[in-house]
Every structure is written in C-alpha cells, then in structure tokens.
Amino acid sequence: MAEAIIRNMELSDVDEVLEVERSSFATPWTTDIFYQELIDNKHAHYFVLQLDGIVVGYMGIWIVMDDAQITNIAVKPEYRGYKLGEKLFGYTVQYALKKGVKRLSLEVRTSNIPAQKLYRKFGLVPGGVRKNYYTDNQEDAIVMWVNLI
User: Fold this and answer.
1) Is 58 a catalytic residue?
2) Is 119 a catalytic site residue?
3) What are the strands, taking DSSP E only, across the chain?
4) Which of these is catalytic: 16, 95, 119, 134?
5) Can you tell me the mean pLDDT for 14-28?
6) What is the Cα 61 distance to its own chain's centre?
7) Whether the model pTM is above 0.70
8) For residues 46 and 38, is the Cβ–Cβ distance under 8 A?
9) In a 3-state reduction of DSSP, which class is residue 131?
C-alpha cells in the first residue's frame, strides 16, 4: 500500500470527501455543510488522508479553548482494515495537543464496536449516552472522552 499522507482539508477536497462521506454514513453531510465548516467555523479543523493522491479518509475536530470535539472520521470501506483510521485519529490527537487541548470527546453509535475499539486505543472511555441521537434510526450514541493532559 502507498504511503499515507495526512494534510489539512481544502475546499478543493470537498468532492472527494463527499465520496468518503456517502460511502460511510446513512445520513451523510452535504457539500454546504463542509463548505460552512471550512469557511465559516473558526473552531473547525479538518484533515484528509490520501493514498496515491486520492482522498480515502478524513477527520474533523472542533477546538474551543482547551476542549475538543471530534465531529467525524471516516475511511472508504475498501480501505478499512489497514489502520488508516488509527493513523488519522493519532494525527488529529497530536494536532489537538499542539493546540493546547486538554479534553477530547466524541459520540459513537452503540453498534459501532470497531470505532469504539479504536477510540479506546487512544484512552477514550464511555462517559454517558445520548438517547436517540442518530436521526436515521434513532440509535443511541455513546459519549466517549479522555483527558489528554
């Protein structure tokens, strides 16, 4: 497999990111949401993971003072199982630490055991449940968090 390159997401990446998004989520974000995040949200930081110049994954994080919230992470289905999500998550955690983040949190579907295992590798633990969080099927979300410092 080619070397993975992780870099800041640019507006020109949105079409490829949408391919990742649509192949990964039942209710994918729209073009407008990504543009809004990249242009208007001063707290948003997004990264893409490329192999051979093709975006195969992406991740977003909101940083407000010393708190961070993972907004989303996805890898195209055909590239899963190669630890690319782990590489992307690790990169983003290191980025957050450099920005002075002390606490990191996210929501994950109760049924998404592979993602929960990944997050546990980085020290995240369940902290609560958001009932009926996901609009596509009213599945609960587990809130996971970690103190980074």
Assistant:
1) no
2) yes
3) 4-8, 44-51, 54-64, 67-75, 103-109, 125-130, 141-147
4) 119
5) 96
6) 7
7) yes
8) yes
9) coil
CB 4 within 8 Å of CB 84: yes
The residues with which 104 forms a beta bridge, in sequence order, are: 68, 146
Edge-to-edge order in the sheet of strand 44-51: 4-8, 44-51, 54-64, 67-75, 103-109, 141-147, 125-130
Q: What confidence tier does 2 reach under pLDDT thresholds 50, 70, 90?
A: confident
* Dihedral sign from CA coordinates of 89, 50, 46, 26: negative
The Cα–Cα gap between 10 and 16 comes to 11
| Letter string b/e over residues 64-100, b meaning 16 or more CB atoms within 10 A of that residue's CB | eeeebbbbbbbbbeebeeeebbeebbebbbebbeeee
Specify the CATH number for the domain of residue 117: 3.40.630.30
Return the ∠ at Cα 82 (arms to 73 and 121), rounded to 5°: 60
Domain count for the chain: 1
Closest CA to 46 of 35, 54, 117: 35
Catalytic residue among 91, 107, 133, 139: 107
SS3 content of the chain, % helix, strand, coil (to 5): 35, 35, 30
Q: Which domain holds residue 127?
A: 4-147
